[in-house]
UniProtKB/TrEMBL annotation:
This is Pirin protein. It comes from the Bacteria. Residues 207-310 form the Pirin C-terminal domain. Residues 313-341 are annotated as: Disordered. Residues 318-341 have a biased composition (Basic and acidic residues). It comes from Melittangium boletus DSM 14713. Belongs to the pirin family. Residues 64-140 form the Pirin N-terminal domain.
């Protein structure tokens, strides 16, 4: 019987290594303090490299923000971002005039396509108490024929995302959150229409797994045996994958064509799974642009310099919404949606 574990790597600091069709995966986990009147941290920013604050001083980062943590307006072309917010909030603004505030279990799926500029700020809305913020951002590639698709974002609200609970023979629970793909007949809300994940044969799946101490669960085989499948063991003391015991947080490339037994050996264990049929095309990346050739990268840079991908319709490069604004999404066509709760 072949070993289902094809490769292991230390997890290390993000961004984490990914496999086609994925390009990038980062886990942001920041213990932000109380917010001030501007929804930035009620704390001194002395000693931080503002604009490039990734050091993690005091357990949190400003990233590229100078007043509010986050990522002020920046361009993308040729791929998609999938942002899974496990705790805290994100304020989105983009060059099409769309805006949103989402978090606390919501997922935003953004097709950059032919080009978009967006800001992702982390408003610290709570005053007098901490604002912990945790999220994954995952970049999913687009095939050549979709790299110039119109930009589009979809909101996958928390209440619409399947969360399945499994109990093993000892009564210990495993919870699986399905941000993309399908498990036990429960399917995630649809991704944008030109996403690689929207094709029926690509078997793209993005799941987070939470195993109680001692819990066992069997990961079912992928529907498409050609799919790449990667496990990111990012929380907990020890995890057994098939016959391999992992006492350090690791990245595991595993076979997708067979069931795989997981066991939380020590503590509550959490795992991110990324899966999908590879696109199998050349990848040329320059910062926020991902194309198939260097000439296309040069064209992307020229197009951005010339058009700014639609310009920036906001007064600030790092806009945030009012503190008391709830979760919402206002799309480029003016349509507004809010979660049911």
């Amino acid at each position: 019987m072949k070993n289902p574990i094809q490769q292991t790597l230390p997890l290390g600091s993000p961004p984490w290594v990914t496999a086609d069709p994925f390009l990038f995966c980062v886990h942001h986990d920041d213990q932000y303090p109380a917010g001030n009147e501007h929804q930035g941290p009620e704390a001194s920013l002395d000693g931080r490299d503002l604009g490039q604050d990734f050091a993690g001083k005091d357990g949190w980062r400003m990233y590229h923000g100078e007043e509010v943590p986050g990522f002020p307006g920046h361009p993308h072309r040729g791929f998609e971002t999938v942002t899974i917010v496990r705790n805290g909030l994100i304020d989105h603004s983009d060059s099409l005039g769309a805006t949103a505030r989402f978090g606390h279990g919501d997922v935003q799926w953004l097709t950059a396509g032919t080009g978009i500029v967006h800001a992702e700020m982390f408003p610290l809305v709570k005053r007098g108490e901490p604002n912990p913020t945790e999220l994954f951002q995952i970049w999913l590639n687009l095939p050549a024929e979709d790299k110039h698709a119109p930009p589009h974002f979809s909101m996958l609200w928390n209440q619409d995302i399947p969360r399945l609970a499994f109990t093993d023979e000892a009564g210990r629970r495993t919870e699986v959150t399905v941000a993309a793909g399908e498990l036990d007949g429960r399917r995630a809300p649809p991704p944008p229409p030109r996403s690689w994940a929207s094709r029926p044969d690509t078997d793209v799946a993005i799941w987070t797994l939470r195993l109680e101490p001692g819990a066992t669960w069997t990961l079912p085989p992928a529907k498409n045996p050609r799919a790449h499948r990667t496990l990111y063991f990012f929380a907990g003391g020890a995890l057994r994958v098939a016959d391999q015991l992992c006492r350090e947080h690791q990245i595991l490339a595993v076979s997708s064509d067979a069931a795989l037994r997981l066991e939380a050996v020590e503590g509550t264990v959490e795992v991110l799974m990324l899966q999908g049929r590879p696109i199998g095309q050349p990848v040329v990346q320059y910062g926020p642009f991902v194309m198939n050739t260097r000439a296309e990268i040069q064209q992307a840079m020229m197009d951005y310099q010339r058009t700014r991908f639609g310009g920036w319709p906001f007064q600030k490069n790092d806009p945030v919404h009012p503190r008391d604004e709830g979760r919402f999404a206002r799309h480029a066509d003016g349509r507004v949606e809010r979660p049911a709760r």
